[in-house]
């Protein structure tokens, strides 16, 4: 998968929007104002994972703790192409679901989720 592919997967999710809070070269995908995936200027991708997935992915070496976001259980792939497209798409959908689950009922209702 490439940067555009990540964008297609993210924007196909309900309520997802693309913003550039860190500059035009960083793509931040958000739902309800909260980020769930970010593609960096150098082509790496970071995304939110569950506590268990964070431990499994970082301890196995499949992903590394995301710079600045590891404390919030985000992982990073320095190269988007490091994983098969289907696996990455599954993790993107999971990241979206985790963030949606943290939104208030009112916010979910406003987004139609």
From TrEMBL:
Entry keyword set: DNA-binding
Highest taxon, organism lineage: Bacteria
Stretch forming the signal peptide: none
InterPro entries: YjbR, YjbR-like_sf, YjbR/MT2646/Rv2570-like
Gene Ontology MF terms in the entry: DNA binding
Protein name stated in the entry: DNA-binding protein (MmcQ/YjbR family)
Organism field: Brevundimonas faecalis
